[in-house]
Amino acid sequence: MKIFKQIAIIIGFCLLGELISWLITLIIPAFFFPGSLIGMMLLFLALYFKLFSIDKVANVGSFFIDNMGFFFVPAAVSIMSYFDIIAPIAWKILLLCMISFLTTFCSIALSVHITLLIQEKFEEGKKKKNE
């Protein structure tokens, strides 16, 4: 029964996100924001502000994370059904993937490096203050 409650909580936030997305689309027809993202943000905010504890969704959340690859299989299969359309531009798609990977990797490396420098300066300031 505990699992059903956890699934109900997650699905409830998903449905709430879809409802909000639908309402936003009604108000601003040219604007679309995915309901699944809205639902995840609402779930995060509910956990952050301790509206309920992480234990209420931990088991099902761990299951979803552990089996995340399985959930991407249908998308990959449907992409392959359009391979004849994608084949002529496959090299462009791969090039974009490589560029976005390198950009993301370099951005993360740079931000980690800057964060470490800031932490070192902060620690040096604390040591000087304590002396």
Number of H- or I-type helical stretches: 6
What is the count of β-strands? 0
CA(first)-CA(last) distance: 58 Å
Unreliable stretches (pLDDT < 50, length at least 5) are none
* Class from helix and strand fractions: mainly alpha
- Apparent shape: extended
Q: Portion of residues in helices? A: over 70%
Order of helices and strands: HHHHHH
Q: What is the mean pLDDT?
A: 90
Largest sheet: none
Proportion of strand residues: under 5%
Rg from alpha-carbon coordinates: 22 Å
Main features:
131 residues; 6 helices
Account of the 3D structure:
- This protein is an all-alpha fold and 131 residues long.
- Helices cover 82% and strands 0% of the residues.
- Helix 1 packs across helix 3.
- It starts with a helix and ends with a helix.
- The model has no long low-confidence stretch (mean pLDDT 90).
